[in-house]
Amino acid sequence: MTEDFIRERITALRLKKGVSEYRMSMDLGHSKGYIQSISSGRALPSLQELLYICDYFGITPHEFFSEGEENPIIITNIMKKLTAMNDEDLSLVLSIVDRLNK
Questions:
Q1: First CA to last CA across the chain, in angstroms?
Q2: CB–CB of 32/4 below 8 Å?
Q3: Residue 88 confidence (pLDDT) above 70
Q4: Separation CA 95–CA 84 (nearest Å)
Q5: How far apart are CA 18 and CA 24, in angstroms?
Q6: Using an 8 Å Cβ cutoff, are 24 and 11 in contact?
Q7: What is the DSSP string of the chain?
């Protein structure tokens, strides 16, 4: 894993969320160019700041670093909703997922 991964991951998640670098910087309480400086390679977030960024996207650090997950925000939302379902509904969802994966 490289510094480029962190930069690219933040950019990809930001674009999926549909927010500008400026808006994300301001939402995180930084100057307007904070995220742009990360994206351009001039800076990297501290560990504390990376945790804030994960929280901003609604994902865990594990989900942030999971390279195979292209849509961690969607997956996290699905998982939250699945945990509230009863066994019958979970079985139904599983059968639908199985069918879609064929």
A1: 32
A2: no
A3: yes
A4: 18
A5: 10
A6: no
A7: --HHHHHHHHHHHHHHHT--HHHHHHHTTS-TTHHHHHHTTS----HHHHHHHHHHHT--HHHHH-TT-S-HHHHHHHHHHHTTS-HHHHHHHHHHHHHHT-
Instruction: Please report where in the chains the tokens 């930069």 appear, as a residue.
Output: 7
What pLDDT score does 1 carry?
66
Give the phi and the psi of residue 25 in degrees, each rounded to 5.
Answer: -55, -45
Give the model confidence (pLDDT) of 43-77 as tens digits: 999 999 999 999 999 999 988 998 777 777 788 88
Predicted TM-score (pTM) of this structure:
0.71
* Structural domain spans, the chain: 3-100
Q: Between 1.10.260.40, 3.40.250.10, 3.90.380.10, 3.40.50.720, what CATH number should domain 3-100 receive? A: 1.10.260.40
